[in-house]
Amino acid sequence: MGERLLAIDTASIACSVALFEDGALIASEYAEIGRGHAEKLIPMIAKLPERGHASRILVNYGPGSFTGVRIGISAAKALALAWSAEIHGYNCLALVAAQALDQLDQPQPVCVAMLAGHGEYFLQNFSGTGEPSDEFASLTPEQAASRVDADVIAGSAAVELAALVGGKKHFPILPNAAQISLVSRDMKNLPAKPNYGRKPDAQPAKPV
Fold first, then answer.
1. Strands 86-90 and 56-60
2. pTM for this prediction
3. pLDDT band at 34 (very low <50, low <70, confident <90, very high)
4. Domains identified in the chain and CATH numbers
């Protein structure tokens, strides 16, 4: 058996896992479930060959839903501890950009827009090589429309944002762990620390 890598993605309404051996995908599971990642994730991993056992683990650290990001990172850290595995994180928007670029006939800039809750979008522009070309931001739809710097829009908010800016090519893509090989090595060798993208909805109660 060669070197195995387990990829975990729970940062959006999709839940996915993928197992690679020496860089080749050997098994994967994907489902768009909305909620219930905690109940779905471990059974999905258990369906993989040898229950997903790997020497390296990659996990989507966000931006994304608070619950989804926490579940993915917590599971990845627990498995890394149990297996004495190396663990790294990757950026949700970078994966979506890479998936969109893979669908284009030729490389060109891509703007990624993901639904962020409370009517906002997580937005970031990427070059034709999949590298970020500006800073990530959580924006209202109107703010996001003014920040689009590409003729291609990808992500869960792609349809809505394309309608706002008019005439842009769009791909309503969700991140899929099976596609992680599309992301550059530098962008999937990051610390597995959560990036929620927004402040928590619930704030600690102030002392009376």
1. parallel
2. 0.92
3. confident
4. 4-91+175-188 (3.30.420.40), 92-171 (3.30.420.40)
